[in-house]
Every structure is written in structure tokens, then in C-alpha cells.
């Protein structure tokens, strides 16, 4: 699956980046930018979830815990210690990564997928209930507000960089930067020895073990990096929306949305989660009028893509050339 | 002391309901190795069915509840036929079924929200009285729950041990191919099992609905309780789920006395993660 | 009675059987021979429908077996002893054997069949209540054969019936197969050991890398160069 990158791939990626950079100058619409920013946050989240679930084959359902941990950690560090978001988003991502390693260690010992699914779901519920119950610190269901915004600065040649709710431009570029960083990190990782080992492990645990690779440590590393990226996305989200509630930042709806995105886009592909995040965010917005129907549609999308499009939009081209599934060897 | 004892008894009664939900999850996992994340929604739909029959159409509960159970049984079989049965032959069926049932759960939850609205509905107690036994005051409603649970578990135990279907179910869960070559139609057993598991959820919903309220989100928390139950008892074990359910009921009752009610779920989940950490095969099972 | 023509089977992208053809007459014992990985187990599994065939025809007394689900083949009169016994380990010997008659609802008929298999395998009656998983390999094989006979098959498929058994047990199983044959039941089994197989079978098919390379009676095959090449590397 990890073929050498062709010139065509490089050109395509460069063109997409150029397009993304140029977008705000072509269409100056703050609502469109807002949607782009949300899509990017989810693209990071979805790519990181896909790293663990699609590439490493460890099916977790509790990654929204890391999103919430990242969001609340960054916000609380900013509010209580007066630290700048430029610093706290990284601290929060590290805290999320530590939480990932903490919960990842027991999970990685479990080979049974249902057990992993249950533990990860329950872990996220524990995080959500704890945040909701610790009202003295998080203000619980009332919502945490007064989250500091990113400080602006002067950039030579370009001018003043500002972050406030009415000017989305620099939030957009910052988000884009974080997305490129995340994708780059995931791509680097999957093309390294770690990535090869992890995929070998997904496709046959015993085969990889016989290579004498320390699998547990690699898996934990992948899990930690994934939690780090999700935490980073959460932290950015906190300073972007500037108000957090347990339901919005750690609710099960979040992971459902992300799963829908990855499945629609294509599990276990690089571009799938990103495609899925953009498609579903924009689709969700166009359904704004039918607000009550959004989750209904996400649910239906999950079922339909699993049943009829198991490889997602990212590989839709090859869908028609695919041979029907054969019976498995036992 | 009597209050403490009453709490324990209440814990056992609620636990018997957890046992019904957990045993459904265990039956489905035990026979087809599928983790059904939509299990809570059968409970939710059962709750609504009983609510509409009893409150809106004034059907007496003794008739309304069997009708609801039968309907949810059929619905469960339908869901299995249309989704799970289609996904099981896939190579990545384990993940596909978890994801599909998760999608189904969200779908059904929001369908209920659209159809029935977000207001919490209540069902009157089936039995309004209170009994006093040795100085303990127990609402008849709660005693009825215990009686229903005991009867249901007894029937299920008999079905599994003594009937042709029960044999086929146990054989299929032990070895699908071996069951097929003796002539057991595994696909049909799977479908029936799914229906029965859904019906067990509906029984719990019918009994719990008068105590808790009926609402579109009632399935999710119950699903999580069911997970704790099956982890305690060993995933896939029917008797394990029964014991696990009662145990969870007691632990929660005691835990809430010691801390406060908003930490109830954290206690339950913490206990579950602890069990997975030290005894992944459950408290009563054997390691494989 | 059983006819296979041009059978191709794949495991994923990997083809394990190539254009296999084979026939079994009524009351005939047929051996499917071949070294490890030659696909001989797959032939039996494909007949029973435990692995899907990609191309080819499998018919049993005029029925197209590829259209019949595994459990339905039992009703047609085919039964199979799976490789490594595959008993229901947590159930008793009696329950295992009775499950073999799952498709029969006539209690008197089940009792007759039980009496019949108990006469073939006295151990069934002796160990009635024992948990099947706790028996020795040889004892389990007897229960497995008894279970497959409870459906009153006219064709019995046996996948590696002698695998991992002590020589004494192998001889007992050989005797049983002869008795089954004497009752007019056709038997198809697979085995690596050619000598052993032809002590039992009327005819045999030799598979190599998923293809039938030789077929014929025991004497014909034993004197063939191909058998020597495949088995002795000569």
C-alpha cells in the first residue's frame, strides 16, 4: 500500500496546498473560512484516528477523550496560569499523549477487538463525566468560557497577524499549518520502520512478531502520536470557539462524526479521512436547516458506507474493478 | 441499617435488569462474536412501545408488554438479517459489525428523537402498593421487576439447556463449522438469537420504564451498563452476565452510598477497566 | 453418486485447487491422497460448502451442491467428520452424538440410530455424561465419527481421520470404516499415507499442488512412477 511517491503525487499535493493557501484571497467569505477551519480540525482528528484504527489496526472508539483532554487542558492552562495559547496547545497535546499512553498500555495487551472497543468507549465516558462533575474547575455543563485567544503579531512583508472571531483568515492559516504538520508526521511515521512494523502487525500479528520487532512499543508510540494529534486538534478548537462544554468537546457524537468521516472517506488510506472530514462538514452545514436530521444522516452514512462502500470515497475509482470477495482460508 | 439493606435489595433488583440487558449482549457475542453497539436502542424502542401501548392506547400492561416484546423480537431479527448477516462473511467482519451497529444506534436514537420528540415520558407503576417484609419497605413495582427477571432467566436457562434450539445455539457458539456439518442452520440460529437478545432488552425496558423515564437517549447509558456486566461475567457467557448484572447492581448501590450519585457511572466503568486489566476473561470465566 | 467436474477454489487471491474432477460411486470407498498443502482437505471442504468454489460443478444424486447450504447437505444424505474432530468440547458425549441427528425430529428414529452407533462405538454408551473436550484424541475421533453417522448419511466425508492418532487407534478406526462401508455407505477420506489408504479404499486420487495428477485403483497407483515421485522425491 505504501508505494514510492510518484512525481504526480508530489505535484497533486503541491497544487492542493497552493489552492488552500490561495482560497481566502479568491473567495473572501468568513462563513466559508469557518467551515474550512472546522473541516481542518476534523481532518486532523480523523487522520489521527485513522492512524490507529486504519493503519495500526487497533480499533478504538474513544478518541474523543483526547480531543476533550486537549481542549480543556489548553483552555484551563490559559485561564488559570495565564499562559499563551501558542504554548498551551502544545502542552495540552502532550497531556493528551500522556493520557493516550496511560490508557494505551492496558489496551495494547488486549487482542480481542470487542474488549478494546468497550474499554476505549468507557474511558471516554469516564473523561466526559469527570469533566462534567468537576464543576469547580471546568464549570461542568455550564460551559467553560473566557478562553484566551491566540495573540497577534507583526509578520514582515505580510503585515499584522490577528486572531479574533470576526477575522478568520489567520485561524485558517494556522489550522492549515497544523493539518500539514499532522499529515506530514503521520506520513513520515507510516513510511518509517515503525509504520512498516505496525502494518505488518495489523495484517498478521504472529508474522510480525517472528521478525523480532518490539511490537508493543511501536504500537504504543503510534497510539501516543495519535492521541497527541487529536489533543492538538482539540486545543486549537478550544481557542477557536472559545467556549467548551463536556458534550461538545468530549461527547460521543464527536467520535461518531469522526468515524463517519473516516468510513465515508476510506479507512486505512491517507486521503480518506481528509476527504471525509471536508465532505461531511460541508454536508452537515448544508443540512443546517434540517438540524435534527444531521446525526440521523451520519448514522445512516456509517451503516451505508460499511455495507456498500467498505473502501470509501478515496478508492471509489478502484471499486468497480474490485473482484468480489472470496471465501476465507481457515 | 435497614436503609442500607433496602439499598442493597434495590441494587439487586436493578442489577437483575442489568443482567437481562447484559445477557442479551452476551448471547449475541457468544453465538456470532459480534459486539452489538445498537443493543441499547432495542431497549429504547421497547420502552417507547410499552409507553405508547399503555399510556396512549390504554392497553393493560399484562397485554401491552408481551406485544412489545414480540414486536422487538421481530425487529431484532430484521436488523440482524439486513445488516449483520450481510457483514459476517466479510474478512473484516469484526470491525464492520461494530461500526455498523454504532451507526445503527445513532440512527435509531435520532429517529426516535424526530418521531417522538425530546420530552421525557413516564409510565405509571404497574403495581402501586408497598409491601413490608421484616421491617423492610419495598414497592410492589420493584418486587415485580425481580419476579419478572427471575422468570425470564429461568425460561432462558431452560431453553438453552433443554430445547433443540438451545442445543443448536450452544453448538453454533462453540464451533460454527462443526454445527453446520451436523445440519444446524447457523444463519437462522444467528437471526433468532439476535431477536431473543433484543426481546430481553425489551423486557428490561418494560420493567424499568415506570421508574426511569422513556426518552430517545435512554439506550446509551443502558448499553454501557450492559458492557460492564458482560466484562464482569466474561464476554459471551450467559450465566456470567446474570451474576455480573446482580454484582454491578450491588456495587453501584454501595458505591453511591459511599460517594454520590453523579459518580455512579465512573465507579462502574472503573471497575470494568480494572477487571479487563487483571482478568480479561471475566470474574467467573476461565482463561482461554 | 457424487460428481465433481472442473473445480477451482481460491483462498483470497491464491488458487488452491485447479480443475479438479472426481467421482464417487455408491457404496464405494475413495481416498484423496497427496502431500501436505496439496489441497486434499479443500476438496472435502468444497463438497460440504465450508469453502466456496469459484468454478466447477459438484453434484450429488442430481442435486447441484453449490446451491445447497452446508446444513442442507446433511438432509441430502452427506455427512462430514472434520479435521481434528471439532467436537463441541463443553458439551457431553451424549449431547454431541445427539446433535448429529439435529435434522431428524422423529424420536424413535433417533433412538434407533443411537443404538446403531453405540453398537459401533461402545465407548459412547460408557462415557455418556463425560465432557467431550476432556477425552483423548482417539476417543474424540470415535465420538466425531459417531456424531456424523447420526444423520444416517449415504456419503461420509472424512477429513484426515487418522491425523495424530496412535497406531492402535488407527486400526480401530480402519475397522470402523470397513463396517460403515459394509452397511452400504460411501466414504471419501483424505490421508497422506498411501499404503494405509489402499488397505481401505477401492480407488484413489492423487493431488499435487492442487491438481489431480493421478487416479485409479490401489494397485494401479501403487505401481505408478508418479506416486514414487511425489512421495519419495525420486
From TrEMBL, chain A:
This protein's UniProt keywords: Cell membrane, Membrane, Transmembrane, Transmembrane helix
Subcellular location: Cell membrane
Principal cellular location given in the protein's record: membrane
Parts of the chain that traverse the membrane: 32-52, 64-83, 89-108, 115-131, 143-163, 170-190, 220-242, 254-283, 295-314
Manganese in keyword set: no
Membrane topology: Multi-pass membrane protein
Membrane among keywords: yes
PANTHER family per the UniProt record, alphabetical: HIGH-AFFINITY BRANCHED-CHAIN AMINO ACID TRANSPORT PROTEIN BRAE (PTHR30482:SF10), HIGH-AFFINITY BRANCHED-CHAIN AMINO ACID TRANSPORT SYSTEM PERMEASE (PTHR30482)
Protein name per UniProt: Branched-chain amino acid ABC transporter permease
Species this chain originates from: Aquibaculum arenosum
Automatic annotation (TrEMBL), chain B:
InterPro entries xref list: ABC_transp_permease, BCAA_transport_permease
Native organism: Aquibaculum arenosum
Cellular compartment(s): Cell membrane
Entry's family note: Belongs to the binding-protein-dependent transport system permease family. LivHM subfamily.
Protein name: Branched-chain amino acid ABC transporter permease
UniProt keyword list: Amino-acid transport, Cell membrane, Membrane, Transmembrane, Transmembrane helix, Transport
Predominant subcellular localization, coarse grouping: membrane
Topology relative to the membrane: Multi-pass membrane protein
Signal peptide bounds: none
Alphabetical list of PANTHER family matching this protein: AMINO ACID ABC TRANSPORTER PERMEASE PROTEIN (PTHR11795:SF445), BRANCHED-CHAIN AMINO ACID TRANSPORT SYSTEM PERMEASE PROTEIN LIVH (PTHR11795)
Top-level taxonomic group: Bacteria
A matching Pfam family: BPD_transp_2
Keyword field contains Phosphoprotein: no
Bilayer-spanning residue ranges: 12-30, 42-60, 93-116, 143-161, 189-214, 226-251, 266-284
From TrEMBL, chain C:
Keywords on record: Amino-acid transport, ATP-binding, Nucleotide-binding, Transport
Residue ranges occupied by any ABC transporter domain in the UniProt entry: 2-234
InterPro entries per record: AAA+_ATPase (IPR003593), ABC_transporter-like_ATP-bd (IPR003439), ABC_transporter-like_CS (IPR017871), BCAA_Transport_ATP-bd_LivF (IPR052156), P-loop_NTPase (IPR027417)
Protein name (Swiss-Prot/TrEMBL): ABC transporter ATP-binding protein
Taxonomic source organism: Aquibaculum arenosum
An annotated Gene Ontology molecular function: ATP binding
Signal sequence region: none
Family designation: Belongs to the ABC transporter superfamily.
Residue runs in coiled coils: none
Annotated PROSITE patterns: ABC_TRANSPORTER_1, ABC_TRANSPORTER_2
Amino acid at each position: 500500500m505504501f508505494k514510492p511517491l510518484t512525481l504526480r503525487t508530489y505535484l497533486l499535493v503541491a497544487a492542493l496546498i497552493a489552492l488552500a493557501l490561495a482560497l481566502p484571497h479568491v473567495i473572501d467569505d468568513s462563513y466559508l473560512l469557518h467551515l474550512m477551519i472546522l473541516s481542518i480540525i476534523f481532518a486532523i482528528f480523523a487522520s489521527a484516528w485513522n492512524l490507529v484504527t486504519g493503519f495500526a489496526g487497533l480499533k478504538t472508539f474513544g478518541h474523543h477523550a483526547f480531543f476533550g483532554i486537549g481542549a480543556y487542558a489548553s483552555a484551563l492552562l490559559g485561564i488559570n496560569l495565564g499562559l499563551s495559547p501558542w504554548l498551551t496547545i502544545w502542552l495540552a497535546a502532550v497531556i493528551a499523549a500522556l493520557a493516550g499512553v496511560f490508557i494505551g498500555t492496558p489496551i495494547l495487551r488486549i487482542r480481542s477487538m470487542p474488549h478494546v472497543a468497550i474499554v476505549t468507549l468507557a474511558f471516554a465516558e469516564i473523561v466526559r463525566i469527570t469533566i462534567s462533575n468537576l464543576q469547580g474547575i471546568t464549570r461542568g455543563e455550564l460551559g467553560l468560557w473566557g478562553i484566551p485567544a491566540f495573540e497577534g503579531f507583526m509578520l514582515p512583508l505580510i503585515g499584522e497577524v490577528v486572531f479574533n472571531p470576526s477575522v478568520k483568515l489567520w485561524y485558517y492559516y494556522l489550522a492549515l499549518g497544523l493539518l500539514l504538520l499532522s499529515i506530514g508526521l503521520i506520513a513520515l511515521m507510516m513510511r518509517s520502520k515503525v509504520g512498516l512494523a505496525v502494518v505488518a502487525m495489523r495484517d498478521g500479528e504472529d508474522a510480525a512478531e517472528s521478525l523480532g520487532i518490539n511490537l508493543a512499543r511501536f504500537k504504543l508510540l503510534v497510539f501516543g502520536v495519535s492521541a497527541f494529534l487529536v489533543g492538538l486538534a482539540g486545543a486549537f478548537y478550544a481557542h477557536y470557539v472559545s467556549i467548551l462544554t463536556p458534550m461538545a468537546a468530549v461527547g460521543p457524537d464527536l467520535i461518531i462524526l469522526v468515524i463517519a468521516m473516516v468510513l465515508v472517506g476510506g479507512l486505512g488510506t491517507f486521503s480518506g479521512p481528509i476527504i471525509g472530514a471536508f465532505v461531511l462538514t460541508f454536508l452537515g452545514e448544508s443540512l443546517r436547516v434540517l438540524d435534527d436530521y444531521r446525526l440521523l444522516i451520519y448514522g445512516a452514512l456509517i451503516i451505508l458506507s460499511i455495507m456498500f462502500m467498505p473502501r470509501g470515497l478515496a478508492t471509489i475509482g478502484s471499486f468497480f474493478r474490485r473482484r468480489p470477495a472470496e471465501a476465507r482460508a481457515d | 441499617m435497614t436503609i442500607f439493606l433496602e439499598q442493597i435489595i434495590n441494587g439487586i433488583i436493578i442489577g437483575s435488569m442489568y443482567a437481562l440487558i447484559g445477557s442479551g449482549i452476551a448471547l449475541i457475542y457468544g453465538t456470532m462474536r459480534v459486539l452489538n453497539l445498537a443493543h441499547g436502542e432495542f431497549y429504547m424502542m421497547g420502552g417507547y412501545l410499552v409507553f405508547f401501548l399503555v399510556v396512549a392506547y390504554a392497553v393493560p400492561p399484562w397485554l401491552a408488554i408481551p406485544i412489545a416484546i414480540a414486536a422487538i423480537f421481530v425487529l431484532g431479527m430484521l436488523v440482524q438479517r439486513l445488516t449483520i448477516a450481510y457483514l459476517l462473511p466479510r474478512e473484516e467482519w469484526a470491525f464492520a459489525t461494530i461500526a455498523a451497529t454504532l451507526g445503527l444506534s445513532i440512527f435509531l436514537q435520532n429517529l426516535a428523537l424526530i418521531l417522538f420528540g425530546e420530552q421525557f415520558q413516564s409510565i405509571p407503576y404497574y403495581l402501586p402498593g408497598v409491601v413490608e417484609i421484616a421491617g423492610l419497605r419495598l414497592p410492589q413495582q420493584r418486587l415485580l421487576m425481580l419476579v419478572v427477571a427471575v422468570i425470564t432467566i429461568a425460561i432462558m436457562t431452560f431453553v438453552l439447556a433443554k430445547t433443540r434450539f438451545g442445543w443448536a445455539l450452544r453448538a453454533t457458539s462453540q464451533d460454527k463449522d462443526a454445527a453446520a456439518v451436523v445440519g444446524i442452520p447457523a444463519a437462522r440460529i444467528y437471526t433468532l438469537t439476535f431477536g431473543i437478545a433484543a426481546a430481553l432488552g425489551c423486557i428490561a425496558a418494560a420493567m424499568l420504564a415506570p421508574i426511569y423515564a422513556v426518552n430517545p437517549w435512554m439506550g446509551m447509558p443502558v448499553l454501557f451498563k450492559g458492557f460492564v456486566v458482560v466484562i464482569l461475567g466474561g464476554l459471551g457467557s450467559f450465566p456470567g452476565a446474570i451474576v455480573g448484572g446482580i454484582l454491578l447492581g450491588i456495587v453501584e448501590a454501595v458505591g453511591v452510598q459511599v460517594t454520590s450519585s453523579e459518580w455512579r457511572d465512573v465507579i462502574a466503568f472503573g471497575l470494568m477497566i480494572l477487571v479487563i486489566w487483571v482478568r480479561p476473561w471475566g470474574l467467573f470465566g476461565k482463561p482461554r | 453418486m457424487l460428481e465433481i467436474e472442473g473445480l477451482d477454489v481460491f483462498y483470497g487471491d491464491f488458487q488452491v485447487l485447479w480443475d479438479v474432477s472426481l467421482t464417487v460411486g455408491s457404496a464405494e470407498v475413495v481416498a484423496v491422497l497427496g502431500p501436505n498443502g496439496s489441497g486434499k482437505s479443500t476438496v472435502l471442504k468444497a463438497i460440504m460448502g465450508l469453502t466456496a468454489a469459484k468454478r466447477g460443478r459438484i453434484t450429488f444424486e442430481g442435486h447441484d451442491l453449490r446451491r445447497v447450504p452446508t446444513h442442507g447437505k446433511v438432509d441430502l444424505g452427506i455427512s462430514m467428520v472434520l479435521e481434528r474432530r471439532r467436537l463441541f468440547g463443553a458439551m457431553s458425549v451424549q449431547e454431541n452424538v445427539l446433535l448429529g441427528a439435529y435434522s431428524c425430529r422423529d424420536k424413535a428414529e433417533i433412538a434407533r440410530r443411537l443404538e446403531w452407533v453405540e453398537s459401533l462405538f461402545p465407548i459412547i454408551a460408557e462415557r455418556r455424561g463425560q465432557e467431550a473436550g476432556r477425552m483423548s484424541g482417539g476417543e474424540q475421533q470415535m465420538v466425531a465419527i459417531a456424531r456424523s453417522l447420526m444423520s444416517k448419511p449415504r456419503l461420509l466425508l472424512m477429513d484426515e481421520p487418522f491425523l495424530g492418532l496412535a497406531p492402535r487407534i488407527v486400526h480401530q478406526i480402519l475397522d470402523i470404516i470397513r463396517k460403515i462401508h459394509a452397511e452400504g455407505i460411501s466414504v471419501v477420506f483424505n490421508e497422506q499415507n498411501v499404503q494405509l489408504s489402499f488397505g481401505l479404499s477401492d480407488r484413489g486420487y492423487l493431488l499435487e499442488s492442487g491438481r489431480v495428477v493421478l487416479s485409479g485403483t490401489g494397485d494401479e497407483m501403487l505401481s505408478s512412477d508418479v506416486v514414487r515421485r511425489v512421495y519419495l522425491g525420486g
